[in-house]
Amino acid sequence: MRPDRVPERFPLEAPVVPGRVPLAGHAARLHRDALRFVRGLRQYGPVTRIYIGPRPVHVVNSPDIVREVLTSQARSFDKGAMFDALRVPLGDGLITAAGDRHLRHRRLVQPAFHHARIARYAHVMSERSLARAAAWKPGTTVDLVPEIHRLTLDILLRTLFADPQDPELHTAVEDWLSVKYHSMRLALSPLNAWAERLPLLPGWRPPDAGPLRRLVAVQQRIIGAYRAAGQDRGDLLSMLLLAGGPDGALTDAEVTDELITLFLAGTGTVSAALAWALYEISRRPDVQRRIHDELDTALAGRPPGFDDLPALVYTRQVLTEAMRLHPPSWLLMRRTLRPVALGGVQLSPGSEVFFSPYALHRDPQLYEDPDHFEPERWPPQGAAKAPRHTYLPFGAGSRLCVGEDFAWTELTMALAAFTAHRRLTPADSTPVRPLVGTVLRPDRLPLTAHARPS
């Protein structure tokens, strides 16, 4: 055998992306401009290798190989080291749970998002969105980022709990939310990676678990009251407590973990998606006109309801396109459980694997003119069935977000409420910057409302 030939049974290693520096690896480039960095990785191959401090990470840049990770080889992967770091501030619900725990929890949580249940929640979504929008007077300018945060938290509390006005609950949730927004930075920190190898690393401080403990304590008090009453109050918490199966019901501790998962997805993910959709709409009068025409025709001036969703085709296209350009979950992570071959690269058990929905959604081989906002790229009714594995705002496979239909319903109701009776324009020329954290969200969104001609 010639010494320069590599046998096919020994696949080549993934190429290391240029720019690795001692101690930090590629972390500095990630923190400086994460979106540009992950989008540029495809030029180095379908599977590349980066380093977070001392930790090697394989990044999948090919949609076909992403499909393998999510479907045909999904059982060979689980959550990775990044989610180990997230578990302290976020608990151990569906987002961070692994293996059999994840599968069991998913089966038990699924009934809370049944079609009939979401139809009941839709009334709350519509009513609260209209109330928040009505407070925005024509001719005034509002930064919608905090407004949308308050709206999504309000909707979430009113769908999670029959009585959401507990002051301790509001305080505990807000304190926890202030911590969780930094979780992705922790997960991508080289200091965190080094701390795994050097537990006594000077200056290293684990994340503050206090906000999570306080939120859990409040939730356990509420759960105790629900258990004592023993009735279905029509909310998400009732469904979680009533859920059962061959493996038994969720324990109180498991219910609190799932509530925290819902706080994360129901505030960060939904609020980011709504903010980006309003950002894109405000810059395009033609898009607004089409939304107005559709809402005028479908609603005829009345509040939107669950039964109106099938008629709001263009509104769905706009939301679909906004989440293509700005997917809230911009980076997803896995860890191999057994030897895996991806794109000719052999990965050993315990290997970390990343893939980026943001990079995938802006791949010119998948989407023509990928940086352009074009709702019409989604055919009528096709936006409701966007292709899995090339469109991943809610994940895919066994990790597909269990609350996806809940999120689509809330986003549609809120978008209709904010746009039906007003025209939106940017308040200034200062660029809106993406904040790359646990979710991808705009740093600010100052918009001016104008009354629509009657």
List keywords for this structure.
11% strand, disordered N terminus, Cytochrome p450, globular, 454 residues, 48% helix, 3-stranded antiparallel β-sheet, alpha+beta, 5-stranded mixed β-sheet
Question: What would you note in describing this structure?
Answer:
With 454 residues, the chain is α+β, with helices and mostly antiparallel strands. It has one domain: Cytochrome p450 (Orthogonal Bundle), CATH 1.10.630.10. The protein is 48% helix and 11% strand. The chain has 16 helices and twelve strands. It has helices at 27-40, 63-72, 81-90, 99-109, 115-134, 144-160, 167-180, 183-187, 190-197, 210-229, 236-242, 252-282, 285-299, 313-325, 357-361, 404-419, and strands at 47-52, 55-60, 77-78, 141-143, 332-336, 340-342, 345-347, 352-355, 422-426, 434-436, 440-442, 446-451. The chain has a five-stranded mixed beta sheet. A three-stranded antiparallel beta sheet has the order 4-12-9. The chain has a two-stranded antiparallel sheet with strand order 6-7. Strand 1 (47-52) and strand 2 form a beta hairpin. It is globular. Residues 1-8 have low confidence and may be disordered.
